């Protein structure tokens, strides 16, 4: 009987480098496996390509072997999409059933990675090399990288407006912070310092404007009232028509951006990335140029 491992409850599997690795895909949506990075071409068994095999010796020192699940139709996996993988290795001596691997919103989803530990051992890691893509921010970072970009968010200090008028935007602020946390984790950039502003002596529901703080890095105020020109950068939550009259250092995401940040599911698509690209470009200036320069 295989060892049954649920996604999120395992970090790595050590496999004996002997014989071949066999991987079988179980998906409610028609999908096939894609294997890349092997030292010799893998074999796909059956016309559906839902079973793949390669010798353990094909896992080289130089690069990992990536396993992806791709929908047959070319449409994204549904919002609750998960797949299972059956992995056999060591001439049948090791067998695992990896359950509940998330693939929602992706057409081609990374689901497993193999790397060589030494001559006698290969290691299996979840998804894209140690962890599943983190949330919407992580998903965007991965997709930008696939398109040749190199997202590197530059905000180092985030000041949250805590005035009374901002109370109604608490869900938007929370969604933004989740998005940024996922984005920074996935890109490997140090997370920004987050500070909740004290306004007119009040830590919550104060009346007045945020006083910008001069910091050594890039400081941004999250507010519903744009700062005066020359007082610093701000990200504005509020009426969409503000964007036409904002000073140069203010950025007002469109309503559809907030809809994406607030969405409860993970059925992200190419349109999701298109909608969020202006925000990503503002957070990570010259991200695509950086990618092309490398």
Describe this protein with a few key phrases:
alpha/beta; disordered C terminus; five-stranded antiparallel beta sheet; 5 helices; 294 residues; 32% strand; 2 domains; Rossmann fold
Topology:
Elements: E1 3-6, E2 13-16, E3 20-27, E4 31-36, E5 43-45, E6 51-55, E7 65-71, E8 82-89, E9 94-102, E10 108-118, E11 121-126, H1 135-146, E12 155-160, H2 170-187, E13 193-196, E14 218-223, E15 233-236, E16 250-251, H3 255-262, H4 270-283, H5 287-293
Parallel strand pairs: 1-9, 12-13, 12-14, 14-15, 15-16
Antiparallel strand pairs: 2-11, 3-6, 3-8, 4-7, 5-6, 7-10, 8-9, 10-11
Summarize this, please?
The protein is an alpha/beta fold and about 290 residues long. It has helices spanning about 135-145, 170-185, 255-260, 270-285, 285-294, and strands at about 5, 15, 20-25, 30-35, 45, 50-55, 65-70, 80-90, 95-100, 110-120, 120-125, 155-160, 195, 220-225, 235, 250.
Walk me through the structure.
This protein has 294 residues and is an alpha/beta fold. It has two domains: 3-132; 147-293, Rossmann fold, CATH 3.40.50. 20% of the residues lie in helices and 32% in strands. The chain is built from five helices and 16 strands. The strands form three sheets. The chain has a six-stranded mixed β-sheet, with no helix packed on it. Helix 2 (170-187) links the parallel strand 12 (155-160) and strand 13 (193-196). It is elongated, with a radius of gyration of 23 Å. Residues 287-294 have low confidence and may be disordered.
């Amino acid at each position: 009987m295989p060892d049954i491992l649920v996604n999120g409850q395992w970090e790595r599997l050590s496999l004996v480098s002997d014989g071949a690795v066999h991987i079988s895909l179980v998906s409610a949506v028609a999908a096939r496996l894609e294997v890349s990075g092997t030292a010799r071409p893998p074999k796909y068994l059956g016309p559906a390509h839902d079973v793949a095999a390669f010798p353990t010796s094909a896992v080289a020192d130089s690069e990992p072997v990536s396993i992806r699940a791709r929908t047959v139709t070319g449409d994204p996996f549904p919002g609750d999409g998960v797949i299972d993988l059956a992995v056999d290795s060591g001439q049948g001596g090791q067998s695992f059933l990896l359950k509940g691997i998330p693939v929602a919103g992706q057409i081609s989803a990374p689901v497993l990675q193999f790397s060589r530990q030494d001559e006698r051992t290969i290691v299996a890691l979840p998804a894209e090399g140690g962890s599943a893509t983190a949330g919407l921010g992580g998903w965007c970072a991965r997709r930008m990288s696939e398109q040749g970009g190199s997202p590197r968010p530059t905000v180092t200090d985030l000041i949250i407006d805590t005035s009374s008028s901002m109370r109604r935007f608490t869900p938007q602020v929370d969604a933004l912070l989740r998005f940024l946390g996922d984005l920074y984790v996935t890109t490997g950039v140090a997370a920004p310092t987050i500070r909740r502003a004290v306004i007119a002596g009040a830590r919550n529901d104060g009346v007045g404007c945020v006083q910008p703080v001069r910091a050594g890095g890039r400081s941004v105020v999250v507010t519903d009232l744009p700062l005066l020109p020359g007082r610093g950068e701000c990200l504005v939550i509020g009426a969409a028509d503000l964007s036409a009259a904002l000073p140069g250092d203010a950025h007002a995401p469109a309503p559809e951006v907030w809809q994406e940040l607030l969405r409860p599911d993970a059925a992200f698509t190419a349109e999701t990335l298109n909608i969020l690209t202006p925000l990503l470009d503002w957070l990570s200036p010259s991200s695509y140029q950086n990618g092309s320069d490398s």
